[in-house]
Write a structure and sequence with these properties.
Blueprint: H1 4-15, H2 17-26, H3 28-48, H4 53-79, H5 88-103
Helix pairs in contact: 1-3, 1-5, 2-3, 3-4, 4-5
Length: about 110
């Protein structure tokens, strides 16, 4: 059975390749934070796939929190003029956020 949020998190990782390279050239600290947060989204979703009940919801919440960090990092890069906001990662993160919000039962 497909897990749409998991698949979207992989799309997000792929779509971040170019933005990460741009951010890395400008700010190594923000690059690491964005990269680690994106990895955390995917890894928590992978772990949640094998859990049940409250433990599963907790991992969805962690993933949602990490996704908010990804979005904030992208927004910072746009605000600083390094990205223009039209990169696919923004739209993918927005869609994934809606799914995770519901999965986390927030």
């Amino acid at each position: 059975m497909p897990f749409v949020a998991y698949d979207l998190s992989l799309q997000l990782i792929r779509s971040l390749r170019a933005p990460l390279a741009i951010v890395h050239a400008r700010n190594a600290s923000l690059f690491r934070q964005l990269d680690d947060a994106a990895d955390s989204v995917h890894q928590n979703l992978a772990e949640a796939g094998g859990r049940h009940g409250a433990d599963r919801v907790r991992l969805f919440r962690y993933s949602y929190g990490s996704l908010r960090e990804v979005r904030a990092s992208l927004e910072l890069a746009v605000a600083k003029g390094w990205l223009d906001g039209s990169e696919p990662a923004h739209a993918i993160a927005f869609r994934l956020g809606g799914l995770l919000y519901r999965l986390a039962k927030l």
